[in-house]
Structure formats: structure tokens, C-alpha cells
Amino acid sequence: MSVYIDLASRLIHDQAKNLAVTCPHCQVMSHITPVAVPRFEDLTVHKPKQVGLVYLCDNCHSPVFLRYTVRAYHTSRIELSPQFVEVERAREKFTFTYLPEEVEVLFKEALLCFSNGAYNAFASMCRRTAQAVFADLGEAGKLRLFDELNNVRDLAGIAPEAFNKLRTILFNLDDDPRSNIPTLDSYEAGIMLEVCKDLLYEAYVRKGKLQQAMMVRRFFLEETASNLTSMAQTAE
Ligand SMILES: [Zn+2]
Fold first, then answer.
1. What's the gap in Å between 108 CA and the centre of ligand 1?
2. What is the SS3 assignment for 105-156?
3. Ligand 1: distance of its center to the CA of 66 in Å?
4. What torsion, rounded to 10 degrees, do the Cα atoms 130, 135, 136, 139 define?
5. 183 alpha carbon to ligand 1 midpoint, in Å?
């Protein structure tokens, strides 16, 4: 695979047709097209070790920024390493509407850590989120979520080693918090993310949605009842 900037400041990328990333704006895995490439002359004057390119998401047409490491400066081409860094990564989404404020603040930061590939910072923020949830729901709520975690393990078939780490991070809160947080790799962090979303959904979102739906039903019922009453009165 070769990627380089030529004398005319064009980006020549032999895999350009297959270049796709998860767009940070529309969250769709989309092909991206280069729209702003640094000028060849400028780069050869300063010879920076890294260069930034702007692409356009083919799906939503928002800008996508990629950073490449320069492999070599030649007289007629600037060779880039094919591996790039996505400067702005797609954010993980979650419905925060029904969460208590403290839980929302902490879990938002957890998602931010995850999106930036800081998986152990993510694990620590998941623990803080869990602490806030347990403080809010009390011991009964904590036990309910512990049961739910076991359900998730059975439903999703999570491997024992990963599961034990998740359980330790979320539920073993009594010991010295510095000593007992296991480290997570990207795969385990991905499992952790889905498990936390499920637990928060179970603890707050499901109940909130149901309550709201019931409220809407009651509203329409009362509305219909009062309409019927006024129709009956008009008929009299
Ligand atoms: Zn997009």
C-alpha cells in the first residue's frame, strides 16, 4: 500500500477507493474523499514529521480529519505511512434522558474515554458511574443489578475471564479502590461498554420510557373522557 503527496500537492493513495472510517458526525461507516491536502512546497520547507489532511464524509459531507506520519521526503513526492490517526473519533451514543444528573455526567465521561481509546480510564469511570448508581438506587437496587449482570453473562455468553473483570470493576467497591481495578484491553472494554449500557438501561431508561408511555396513555384517556362528557352535555 502506498500513500504520497506529489509535486502538484495531490494525494495519491492506491487504496483510496476502499478508505472508510466511522464518521464522527453521522456515525456511519462511510467512504471518505480528500478535500484539503497540504501544499507540497510548504511541507518540503518545514518537513514536519506528521501531516494533517481533511476529507469529506461521502454520507453526510462533514469534514473528517486524518493525521499521517511522514515516512520520507523525496524530491518529487512525500511518502506517508498508510496508518493514519482519526483526529476526531465517533462518539458512543446513549439515551441520557432518564439518568440522574450525577450518573449522566460520569457515564458521559466514560464514553468519552472509550471513544478516545483510553480503556483503563474508561474502566475507572465505569466504576464511578456504578458507585453513583448504587448510591442512588440503594442496596436493593444494587442486588437487582448484580442479578442483571449475571443474566447478561448468560444471554451474551461472556467469557469467564472478561466477566470476572467486569464484575470486579463494577461491584467490588469495598476494598481500596486503587488496588483492585483490573486492566482492560480494547475487546474487554467493548464488552464492558455494552454491559454498562444494558445495566443503565435496566436501571433507569426502561422504567423512564414505560412511565412516560403510561403518562401519555392516561392523558389521552382523560382527554377522551372529557370529550365524551362535553358531547353528552351538548346533546342534553
Ligand atoms: Zn458522515
1. 22
2. HHHHHHHHHHHCCCHHHHHHHHHHHHHHHHHHHHHHHHHHHHHHHHHHHHHH
3. 14
4. 100
5. 33
Question: 85: CA distance to ligand 1 center in Å?
Answer: 17
pTM of the model: 0.67
Name residue, grid cell 392523558.
219
Q: How far is the CA of 19 from the centre of ligand 1 (A)?
A: 13
pLDDT in tens, the chain (236 residues): 799 999 999 999 988 899 999 998 998 999 999 999 999 999 999 999 999 999 999 999 999 999 999 999 999 999 999 999 898 888 888 889 899 999 999 999 999 999 888 999 999 999 999 999 999 999 999 999 999 999 999 888 899 999 999 999 998 866 555 557 899 998 999 999 999 999 999 999 888 888 888 888 888 888 888 877 777 777 66
Cα(80) to ligand 1 centroid in Å equals 24
